[in-house]
Specification:
Length: 454
């Protein structure tokens, strides 16, 4: 049975990289229901970063309005076919795969009394689970890995307790208790992993010290329901907030470019029928591109929207999806160019829908400076993509360095014209550890850190 606190939301954030050449994913085929997922209500989906062929989802099969069968499912072929692996499930929760071990999972699921959540850990790919925390009241569907340190994981316990582990869940520390009653989302900036944003019923909070202390942010509007957040990995000051609303006060998408000091509405193309926000994702290959899932349980309506300009405008993106229900989770695999969404449908089949995506150039803007972006994925095994931008014709050298500062690889050393470029470094011949990559021109030098985990 659906939880008393069931909402049509469950934002999951993935890391994105910025481009100056604006690109967008364009659908080459309509959405299709994946094998083994018909009738399944997914609360969350997560790709394993080390091998995105492996995907996990947590949710339930709804038998009727009074009976559900909870299930955790796994796909080993990029989400095309799903198999049940355990009875751990939920209708509001979260699932996260450890960045360096596909067998280590953390899950937040609804408790037996349907009033709060339990946080569990698996070390055998979801076959068995050990309960870590059990909340008292209110679900708290939040589990996030630190984007820089894959051994650090955050987990929320209802009503507003946040825990942090720096040893992959062996030991935990209780952080400063958030002054709220219902934690709905948390996101971490990839550009500065000390910067965390938390969303709750009626509030947004920010921490600049890894969650040890928090301050409340003012969006300039009244918030009475859930808030969900996405922070740009390139700039911790750029944050998106999705306000869930059933009517009054208004909901919608808001954006801040100054660390939450000021916010502006980004709802061109969205109206009041789009306020039941269920999921929001940033394209990992373009920080200007977003996907928005909404709930329309009472009327036929588009349930998935798409923006290619940082939220300035939105357009429908649901060809082949049901038209009444909700899109409650979105997951993008940038390596295989796959996109999965979790759908609850009133009139059609609930389940996990998938489409193939291709990248197409829609606009070309010349870079305004020399920029070396954070590699993606990071941590990685064994290869990673490095992107950079050049604002004028110049000789560019990009090298990989070890912790001693010694050059171990030269990725490019040639003249480049203005534009955006990408390189791939394969670390298969090197041991796990910290490496650096450096971009040099005759008047510019920048170095970034990356982590190889095998």
């Amino acid at each position: 049975m659906k939880s008393l606190y069931k909402k049509f939301f469950n934002i999951v954030i993935i890391l994105e990289l910025g481009f100056t050449v604006t690109t967008s994913f364009s659908q080459v085929s309509s959405w299709h229901l994946t094998g083994g997922s018909e009738g399944y209500f997914p609360a969350d989906i997560d790709f394993y970063r080390g091998d995105p062929d492996t995907v996990y989802t947590i949710g339930l099969f709804e038998i009727d309005q009074y009976h559900d069968t909870f299930k955790l499912m796994r796909s080993t072929n990029q989400g095309a076919q799903w198999d049940s692996i355990s009875y751990l499930g939920t209708d509001i929760g979260a699932i996260r795969v450890a960045p360096n071990d596909s067998k280590v999972l953390f899950a937040s699921s609804i408790s037996i009394n349907e009033e709060s959540n339990i946080v569990s850990k698996s070390t055998d790919g979801g076959m068995s689970w050990k309960v870590i925390f059990s909340g008292a009241i209110y679900p708290a569907p939040v589990i996030q890995f630190d984007p820089v340190n894959p051994q650090t994981v955050y987990a929320a316990e209802g009503p507003g307790y946040l825990w942090r582990s720096t040893d992959l869940g062996v030991t935990w520390s209780l952080l400063d208790t958030l002054p709220l009653g219902y934690l709905t989302d948390m996101t971490i900036s990839n550009a500065a992993d000390s910067v965390l944003y938390a969303g709750a019923i009626g509030a947004v909070f920010q921490s600049t010290d890894w969650g040890n202390s928090w301050k409340r942010l003012d969006l300039g509007v009244t918030i009475n329901d859930g808030v969900f957040l996405a922070a740009s990995p390139n700039d911790p000051n750029v944050v998106y907030a999705g306000l869930y609303s059933t009517g009054s006060p208004p909901g919608g998408i808001y954006k801040s470019i100054d660390g939450g000091k000021h916010w502006s509405a980004k709802n061109n193309g969205l109206d009041s029928t789009c306020w039941l926000i269920g999921a929001m994702k940033i394209n990992p290959l373009n920080s200007q591109e977003l996907f928005l899932g909404i709930g329309t349980p009472t009327i036929p309506h588009e349930m998935l929207y798409h923006s290619t300009d940082g939220g300035e405008s939105w357009n429908p993106y649901g060809n082949g999806l049901p038209k009444q229900g909700s899109v409650d989770c979105i997951s993008i695999d940038p390596l295989n160019k796959k996109m999965c969404v979790g759908v609850w449908s009133v009139i059609d089949s609930s389940g996990i829908y998938e489409t193939d995506l291709v990248t197409s150039v829609t606009e070309r803007l010349l870079p305004t400076g020399m920029i070396l972006h954070q590699n993606y994925p990071n941590p990685f095994n064994p290869s990673t993509v490095i992107r950079y931008e050049v604002s004028r014709p110049v000789q560019v050298s990009i090298s990989v360095l070890n912790v001693l500062g010694q050059r171990i690889a030269t990725l490019t050393d040639e003249e480049k014209y203005p534009g955006s470029y990408q390189l791939r470094w394969d670390g298969k011949n090197y041991p796990s550890g910290i490496f650096f990559y450096q971009m040099k021109t005759n008047e510019f030098i920048q170095t970034r850190k990356m982590i190889l985990l095998k």
